Amino acid sequence: MDSNYNSGYNKGSYNFHYQKDNKLVAYSTESERAAFYRKTYTHVALAILAFILVETALFRLIPPYFIEDMFAAPFIAFFEVGILLLGSFMATKWSHSLNKNTLYLGLGFYVLLEAIFFFPFIGAAVMMSYTEVLWQAVIITLSLFTGITTVVFMTRLDFSFLRSVLIIGGFLSLGLIVAGVLFGNDVGLWFSIGMVAFAAGSILYETYRIKNKYTTEQYVGAALQLFASVMVLFWYVLKILSRFPRGLR
Predict the structure, then answer these.
(1) Which residues pair with 24 in a beta bridge?
(2) CA–CA separation, 87 vs 80, rounded Å?
(3) What does the pLDDT read at residue 17?
(4) What parts of the sequence cross the membrane (predicted)?
(5) First-to-last C-alpha distance (Å) of the chain
């Protein structure tokens, strides 16, 4: 689901100028790398904060009965398939753009899309006083994210092999979701556990790319890809915990 970030940059004076002035993070100076990492993870944090603010606004504006109808709607699973497909496509396309305005527009729109997608589930959990489950999902997600990030930055391991694994896993997971929707079968707990592993692998791969494959000016695109992976991880951690009324005691 990614492409070579240096491909297509050899046509036109603008692209030549861009490639000349912006080198890969792996070959930049220590101060340039530090600035790139700071900007990338700041944008991820701001995207998460924006997601929380949008969720809060939606919860205050939309009446409870509408939340219940949304949560019980039979098309919610189709929406899940659609947002995974559309979100993955948009995140990949926008993160490759050379235009900063396009990148910021893409990041903002994707945050809004994720907030709308999560809203019925989070809204129902809040109304049923299951907020401890939400907090547990947040803590687990952040812990996994921190651990994965540390592994990549503290080692020199090559995780590029994960690209093929993630492509195959992505198509397989989408196929299972579609089959479950069409035949009325719940994909089950083990599927959610598998998707947590898939999302963790995606974060591992994206962090490796942040360290080795991005240029110093691609921090918005890097943040967009990383935010998308974090939200998939959060969604499936939340789905696992929601199977237990009060989460992990």
Answers:
(1) 215
(2) 10
(3) 38
(4) 41-59, 71-91, 103-127, 133-153, 165-183, 189-207, 219-238
(5) 38
For residue 212, the tally of other CB atoms under 10 A from its CB is 16
What ranges do the domains of the chain cover? 27-243
CB of 216 within 8 A of CB of 32? yes
Q: Which two tokens stand for residue 192?
A: 């959610």
The C-alpha atoms of residue 240 and residue 249 are separated, in whole angstroms, by 14
The answer on pLDDT for 3 being more than 70 is no
What letters, b where the CB count within 10 A reaches 16 and e where it falls short, cover 122-133? bbbbeeeebeeb
Q: Measured between alpha carbons, how far is 132 from 4 in angstroms, rounded to an integer? A: 42
Alpha carbon 96 to its chain's center: 16
> What percentage of the chain has pLDDT greater than the value 70?
72
Q: Which residue's entry shows tokens 């196929």?
A: 175
Per-residue pLDDT of 140-166, as tens digits, reads: 999 999 999 999 988 888 888 888 888
SS3 of residue 24 by DSSP: strand
Q: Is the dihedral of CA 157, 158, 161, 165 positive or negative?
A: positive
Angle among Cα 186, 190, 196 to the nearest 5 degrees reads 110
Q: List strand residue ranges (DSSP E) for the chain, in order.
A: none
> How far is Cα 219 from Cα 44, in angstroms, rounded to an integer?
10
